[in-house]
Amino acid sequence: MSESEHKGGSRILNHFVGWVLYPMGDLIGQLITGEFSITRTIVIMILGGTFYRIEIPYWFHKLETFTIADETVKKHPALEMLTTRVQHNYLNWLGKTLGATAYFNPLWMARHMLFITCATTPLSQIDWGNTLLHCLRT
Predict the structure, then answer these.
(1) How far apart, in Å, are the Cα atoms of 20 and each of 37, 38, 61, 74?
(2) Residue 22 to residue 39: CA distance in whole angstroms
(3) How far apart (Å, rounded) are the C-alpha atoms in residues 64 and 47?
């Protein structure tokens, strides 16, 4: 497979994941909680297809290629448990897990909840102060 074919396939996969897979995950959550909303599903499709499909793979690519300098590891020996010595201080499974956790932090979740709240509430009825506080508490 040539590089251009690989990039084309990867691009198609990113579109599929963004427009279909992310909304399907949210839809399953809606069905489990019994709170189905077609508007919410459409908003998640738009977010997934435009924003999340770029943002999330970019972060995970950064985690795959991130290295910690030898001097830094020597200066802070605790970092050794986050890296693989064999592969020039690339992050190991623990480092990647902590990196993913750092990405999906409470602020990311609050932003996601804000989008969902805006999607499921008529704009004229949104009390922005309480909505933002509610999203930050979730």
Answers:
(1) 16, 14, 21, 45
(2) 15
(3) 24
pLDDT in tens, 70-91: 899 889 999 989 998 777 789 9
Q: Give residue for tokens 């030898």.
A: 70
Residue type for position 51: F
- Say what angle helices 128-137 and 106-120 make with each other, to 10 degrees: 140
Distance, in Å, from the CA atom of 78 to the CA atom of 98, rounded to the nearest integer, reads 14
> β-pairing, 90-91 with 83-84?
antiparallel
* Residue pair 89/70 in contact by the 8 Å Cβ criterion: yes
Q: 68 CB contacts (<8 Å, ≥6 apart)?
A: 79, 82, 83, 89, 91
- Note if the pTM is more than 0.85: no
Q: Is 44 exposed, middle or buried (0-12, 13-18, 19+ CB in 10 A)?
A: buried
Terminal C-alpha separation, the chain: 45
- The helix (H) or strand (E) run that includes residue 83 is strand 83-84
